[in-house]
Fold:
Amino acid sequence: MIAPSKHAYAYYPGCSLTSTNKAYDISARNVARVLGIEMVELEDWNCCGATAYMAIREQRSFVLSARNLALAEKEKLDLVTVCAGCYLSLHKTNKYFAQNVQMRRRLQRALKAGGEEYNGTLQVRHFLDVVVKDLGEEEIKQHVVRPFEDLKVVPYYGCQITRPFGEIDDTDFPQGMSRLLSWIGAEPLDFPLTTKCCGGMLMITQPETGIQLVGNILSQAKKLGAQCISTACPLCQINLEAYQARASRRTGKDCRIPVLYFTQLLGLSLGLDPKKLALGDCLTPTAGVLAARSA
Amino acid sequence: MEAVAGEKLKEIFLSNIYAIPDGERIKECQQCGTCSSSCPTAEWMDYSPREIIAALRAGLLERVLGSNTVWLCSSCYSCTVRCPAGIKFTDVMYELKRLGNKYGYVDRKTTTAQLARAFVKTVDRSGINAEGELLARYYLATNPLRVFTQLWLGLRMLLKGRIPLFPHRVRGRKSLQKMTAEAKREV
Structure:
């Protein structure tokens, strides 16, 4: 697809990035600005039809995603998102649209009823993949002005970035975020639970299960000597940061550890002011991470 | 609503499963258990993922829909990427969720189903999900007293400005509603 600048995308924030996870939105936009990635917010985007919608209405969930694809196609730009759940819904819909004739026809009819159309010309990307692959080591390192020193980080992707398709990285043990963390001076640790499920919405509906899953991740990260967790999914972020006291009680292990979005860590290394990364939104203490930057 | 059961339910289930891309692969299950050993929530399930397929083969669809297994699936897709027979088990679980919800196998105690229903209502109204509205609907549909377990977190989030008091709505929601109505008409 022909784009006006080298790295230009239609940007899809997703619902949670307008509220509970606005720090992810703010940090991603500011990081993109410094890195010269043009992100044009998709005009009047709607819910992607995520996991919970899919559990009740299949076709309508695909339609929700398809409207966003139609809006982005009008901008003649590929669609980039930072939310793992939105990434999967939009990507899955786009893939099925391309592969399954019946579904394509059904989606086109539905879009037409609302005065839109989609021809399947765009790609859906995750922002992490854009940063790691489209920019890459050299370009990132050029922009790093305050690299981290002695900061051990576990990368945590959650489920829905690499699975089920495994197109952007390995389904179980992806490497992209570790590479990025090493480019910004941090020390990425091998983390066996890097794509293990945090429980997602089970934290609300089946808390005994959710707390245990989160406790496993947090205590394992702590045991490895990590000083912070780097996340790439808004739901994982809130599950990992908001229930640490309960997780410690449940597992009998220390589960207190700072949890930041990878965009916040990246932004700090780029010299961005913590305010521009909404670091104040974190529910875990971030002073240790800030202190680990070189002067 | 009167629950649909027996042969009629089985017929609907199979036709829906086979309509999913690669859905017919469910017939290839070798009962190896890779799905169950990959599943992060299997230890809380009445029946593990492998047992779900065994139960479906044994004609126990109603028991499957009434089990907690279906709604403990967090759709992490670990089983899907590891299944040696290429069964997209996460998509099978989604279909079982929809079937159970539609044909009367969900009640107040099926909390995850209630959250999903609340999510659909919230999104259908505004075009986007507003977390405050979602949780209000959810706790009203299940156990309103449980809202107190989230009070402290809610307060901290509010103080950090992480809960907007006036969430926005999609301007084009009329057009969006026409689209979803069209999709509803067809299925």
